[in-house]
Write a structure and sequence with these properties.
about 525 residues, three-stranded antiparallel beta sheet, 19 strands
Length: about 525
C-alpha cells in the first residue's frame, strides 16, 4: 500500500515540480498512524515557505499539504517601495509643518512674511529735450492747427456736436522748458455762452468703452469676466484705458473724420512728454526730492500698486494681454485717464431716466487748464469750500439731456486771447502733483489747508492676531482733518483705535447684526453726550 502511491516533492527551485519514485521501505516505515487511523507522512518545511490553504474539494482527493515558497521582489519593486516611503514621509512632514505654522499664527507666535514688492517703472531719458522738440515741430509745421481742425470735424460729425469758432489751441513752452497745449478764445466770450457741445456718443465713459464691439481685446475681457467663477471687478478707468490703447493709433490713419473714434491730439510722443512731470514716471534723481514725504512713501507706491493690480486682473482674465499690451504702456494710458478724466453726471445705462456720476474722457474739453483764484480768507467749513469752488471756476462742464451732449459753458466773461480754464477742485498739492504734474503756490495751500485731510500711519503691533491683520493690506492708516476739529477729529482717531482693541467676537457679532439690519451702516442721530463714543 505504501509503494502503490506516487508522492510529489516541491523543490525550493522556483516553478519546478519534480516527481520522485515510490518511497522506500525505510521511508515508508517512518510513517505513523494517527488515532483516527489515517497514516501521515512528516514533510520537512523550509522556514521561508508557508502552507497554502486547500481549495474546496481538494481535501477529499489528496490529504497531503502543498508547500509554496514566497516569490522574492525584484529590484524595480524595491526601488518603487522606497520611493513611495519617501513621498509619504515628506508629505506627512509638510502637513505637520503647515499645521504648526497655522497654530503659531493663531496664537501670535509667528508673523507671516511677505516678499518685498517693487513696482515696474519707466522714465524718459531726456524729458526736457522732448519738450523742446515737440514745441518746434508743432510751431514750424502748424501740426497743432491741423490736428485741431480734424478734431472739430470729428466732434461736429456726431449728433448735435458743435465747437465754437472762437476756440483755438495754442502751443507754449514755459521758462522751465515745459511744453503745453492750451485751449484759448480768439474773441470775447459772454457769460453763459456755450463753447463746446460734445455728443454723448463721443464721450469716453466706462460704460461706453466697455460696450465697444470693434476691439477684440475688450470683447475678450468682457466675455472672460462674465464666464469667470470669481467676482472680478474691473475699475472704470481700466475700461477707458483699454479703449484708448486700442484706438489711439486709429485716428491718425483713418480715411475720413467720420471714422475717427479717438482724440487725435493725444499722440504717443505728446503722452511721454506730458507724463514726464508726473512722479510715478520720475527717475531716481528727481524722486530724491520727495524723500521722507507721504507723497513718495505712500501715494506714489499706492498708485503703482493700483495700476499693476488692474493689469494683473486683465492678464488673469485674458492671458494674451500680457503679450499684446506691456505693463508700461498700460500704466501710461492709465495715468492719462486719471489726469485728464473728469467726473460728470451721465445717463445710467440701466436706467436712462436718471444720471449718475461717471468718470469720462471728453475730447477737446479735457484740454482746459486748472485755475482757481486766491481765496480772500481761509476756508474752514464745507460750505466755504463749495461756495469758493462754484464762484472761482470760469467755466462749467455739465450734461444736457435735451441735446444729449456734454456742454462746456463760460460762467464769466472771457477776454480775447484768454485761456479757457476750469477748477479741478480744492485738493492738496500732493494730489495735484501726483495726478496732474503741477503744484499751487504756498500761500494758496495755506489758505485751503483746513479743507484737506492728513494721513496717519501706524505700524501694526507685533501682537496683533492674524485675523485682524488680514483686514489691513498695509500699515494701519486712517485720515484725519488737517486742522483739528472737535466735531470730527477725535471721533476718527477713537474709531481707528477701537479697531486695535476689538476682538474677533466684536467683528463677527457686528457682521451678524449687519446682516439682519443693514441700516446700522447709516448715520443715525445720537445723544450729544454719547456722540463721541457713538461715532467710534
Amino acid at each position: 500500500r505504501c509503494h502503490s502511491r506516487v508522492w510529489p516533492r516541491l523543490l525550493p527551485w522556483p516553478n519546478t515540480l519534480r516527481m520522485s519514485g515510490p518511497p522506500t521501505s525505510t521511508q515508508c516505515s517512518t510513517m505513523t498512524e494517527s488515532p483516527e487511523g489515517v497514516r501521515r507522512r512528516p514533510v520537512p518545511v523550509h522556514y521561508d515557505w508557508h502552507v497554502a490553504p486547500a481549495q474546496e474539494g481538494e481535501g477529499e482527493e489528496d490529504d497531503d499539504g502543498v508547500v509554496f515558497e514566497d516569490e522574492q521582489p525584484t529590484k524595480l519593486q524595491e526601488y518603487i517601495g522606497i520611493f513611495c516611503d519617501y513621498v509619504f514621509w515628506i508629505l506627512l512632514a509638510y502637513c505637520a509643518a503647515n499645521l504648526l505654522l497655522w497654530i503659531g499664527e493663531q496664537f501670535g507666535l509667528v508673523q507671516p512674511h511677505f516678499e518685498e514688492w517693487m513696482p515696474v517703472r519707466w522714465w524718459h531719458n531726456n524729458p526736457h529735450g522732448v519738450q523742446k522738440e515737440l514745441f518746434q515741430n508743432a510751431t514750424s509745421g502748424a501740426v497743432t492747427v491741423a490736428q485741431f481742425e480734424g478734431l472739430k470735424k470729428w466732434i461736429t460729425s456726431g449728433p448735435g456736436g458743435w465747437v465754437s469758432p472762437k476756440l483755438t489751441v495754442m502751443d507754449y513752452l514755459s521758462e522751465r522748458g515745459r511744453y503745453e497745449r492750451r485751449l484759448e478764445v480768439k474773441e470775447s466770450v459772454e457769460e453763459d455762452e456755450v463753447l463746446v457741445r460734445l455728443p454723448l456718443s463721443h464721450v469716453l465713459s466706462s460704460d461706453f468703452c466697455k460696450q465697444d464691439l470693434t476691439d477684440s481685446t475688450i470683447r475678450q475681457v468682457v466675455d472672460a469676466q462674465t464666464k469667470s467663477s470669481e467676482a472680478i471687478d474691473v475699475s472704470p478707468w481700466t475700461w477707458i484705458a483699454l479703449y484708448m490703447i486700442a484706438h489711439a493709433g486709429k485716428g491718425a490713419v483713418a480715411a475720413s473724420p467720420e471714422s475717427w473714434r479717438f482724440d487725435s491730439l493725444l499722440r504717443s510722443e505728446y503722452i511721454d512728454a506730458a507724463l514726464s512731470y508726473i512722479p510715478i514716471f520720475w527717475d531716481d534723481e528727481n524722486l530724491h526730492w520727495l524723500n521722507g514725504t507721504d507723497l513718495l512713501n505712500i501715494h506714489v507706491l499706492d498708485m503703482h500698486a493700483a495700476i499693476e493690480t488692474e493689469y494683473h486682473k486683465l492678464t488673469y482674465l485674458v492671458p494674451a494681454i500680457q503679450d499684446s499690451i506691456p505693463v508700461i504702456e498700460f500704466k501710461k494710458w492709465a495715468m492719462v485717464v486719471m489726469s485728464r478724466g473728469e467726473t460728470v453726471d451721465l445717463p445710467d445705462r440701466e436706467n436712462k431716466t436718471r444720471n449718475i456720476p461717471q468718470l469720462a474722457i471728453m475730447p477737446l474739453i479735457d484740454l482746459v487748464d486748472h485755475h482757481l483764484p486766491m481765496p480772500v480768507k481761509p476756508l474752514f467749513t464745507d460750505d466755504d469750500l463749495l461756495k469758493y469752488q462754484e464762484t472761482g471756476s470760469r467755466t462749467n462742464i455739465s450734461y444736457n439731456a435735451d441735446s444729449a451732449a456734454v456742454i462746456l459753458k463760460a460762467t464769466v466773461k472771457l477776454d480775447p486771447n484768454s485761456a479757457v480754464t476750469v477748477g479741478y477742485g480744492v485738493r492738496s498739492n500732493a494730489d495735484y502733483l501726483l495726478y496732474h504734474g503741477f503744484t499751487m503756490p504756498h500761500e494758496w495751500s495755506d489758505l485751503t489747508i483746513c479743507t484737506q485731510y492728513g494721513m496717519i500711519e501706524l505700524p501694526l503691533p507685533e501682537s496683533m492676531p492674524t485675523w485682524k491683520s488680514q483686514f489691513l493690506a498695509h500699515p494701519y492708516r486712517f485720515a484725519v482733518p488737517a486742522c483739528p476739529n472737535h466735531k470730527s477729529t477725535p471721533h476718527v482717531i477713537i474709531g481707528a483705535a477701537r479697531f486695535l482693541v476689538a476682538t474677533d467676537q466684536d467683528v463677527i457679532g457686528f457682521e451678524e447684526k449687519l446682516i439682519k439690519d443693514p441700516s446700522l451702516l447709516e448715520a443715525t442721530p445720537a445723544f450729544r453726550g454719547d456722540k463721541f463714543l457713538h461715532h467710534s
